[in-house]
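Page 42, continued from yesterday. The earlier attempt failed because a stray header line got pasted into the input along with the sequence. Redoing it now with the clean sequence only.
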Amino acid sequence: MFPIYTYKTVIIEDELINITILRQLLSTYQNIRVVGTANTVEKAEKLILKTKPDLLFLDIALGNKNGLELYQQLKAEIDWSMQVIIYSSHTEYALNACCLSVFYFLTKPNVFNDFKSLMESFFKVRRIEEEQHKQSIEKKADDAVIMISTNAGMLSIHLNDIGYFYYIKKRKLLCMLMTCKKEYLLKYQTKAETILAISPFFKKVNPNRIINIHFFSAIIDNQCLLRYPFDEEPSIKFSRFALKSFQCGFTQL
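This time it went through. Structure tokens are written below.
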């Protein structure tokens, strides 16, 4: 199941009735948020660069200026993923729009006929992009090598070779447990905050335990269960604050 994202949307249109129609159609989608509208090329340029929308509805005839020319000028500055939908009755510009790789040419006034399929296509494309981004992050994590200061010196370790860290109260030291079940005492006075800052995949379960979420399995009765090769170890109890923080970091159904 894919997480639910909110997509920022901007409407560039010089006729109020058309802005109203688009707003009403978009309001039926809970994960769409219209963050601004503009009716001139000058206002549009500032709005687009400021809000960095995921979805842009762009009219062609904006007074005596051309919306496609605006998009062409802005392309070099667009460094985020944005799908552009041309919203116009000027179908003679369809080929020009295609050359600029716009996502869709929505023809006025027949907007109602195509809108549902258009939005379904947009969501599908974004889901693919988000899944690819997720896989890219996970691959980087798999390949990531980090440096850890132990009481014996510096170690170069692959991120996914680390299972979790736990605090030894008697010795006042943090200890790192590897997937091979080998343990390393960390350098004296190493703090939990230092470990958490190394990677976003390290999450605190309670004041004495930090896990690598690659080995997280489930939360049952406020207990953190881990997956292989730590699945046979005793469950770890969440502290109240850590549980709330941990859950906020994930999309839930």
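Notes: Residues 111-143 form the longest helix (33 residues).
Reminder to self: strip header lines before submitting.
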